[in-house]
Inverse folding.
């Protein structure tokens, strides 16, 4: 039995990563529709869920939206019952955004079945987990650089 070459394996891995990204996109689309929000609002809700409490300015930076657009997103998310905005007790000029109990409940309902993913990861060694973590960190960095280049080159945006 002949083994794959390294180049063939890299090609196969690249295709598997693209297919996994498409599946994530499919899940994001289904979840957005089930939540009754658009994809941009869903991406912002994800940032809030990961980084809460988060300021609208931080949300703008993470999402690539203008602060005015973030205000509209937050109005919609707050109206849907998924986030709250409160004044920072230490700096009353700052607004903090946090997910609501409803947002956490819906996330558990929709992404709960993804717990199987954690079970699969639990079967890996520490070394394997470190390789996967490092790969995904590097992949994120490369994608962010590529997106910045596309925005600059084709959309005339500056970083």
């Amino acid at each position: 039995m002949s083994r794959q070459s390294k180049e063939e394996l890299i090609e196969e891995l690249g295709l598997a990563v693209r297919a996994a990204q498409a599946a994530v996109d499919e899940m994001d689309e289904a979840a957005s529709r089930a939540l009754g929000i658009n994809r941009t609002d869903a991406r912002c809700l994800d940032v809030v869920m990961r980084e809460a409490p988060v300021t609208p300015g931080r949300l703008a930076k993470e999402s690539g939206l203008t602060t005015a657009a973030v205000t509209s997103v937050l109005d919609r998310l707050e109206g849907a019952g998924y986030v709250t905005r409160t004044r920072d007790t230490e700096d009353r000029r700052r607004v903090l955004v946090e997910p609501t109990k409803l947002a956490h409940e819906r996330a558990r309902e929709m992404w709960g079945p993804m717990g199987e993913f954690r079970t699969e990861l639990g079967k890996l060694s520490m070394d394997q987990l470190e390789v996967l973590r490092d790969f995904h960190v590097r992949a994120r960095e490369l994608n962010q650089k590529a997106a910045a280049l596309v925005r600059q080159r084709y959309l005339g945006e500056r970083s």
The beta strands are 83-87, 95-99. Residues 6-35 form the longest helix (30 residues). The two ends are 50 Å apart (CA to CA).
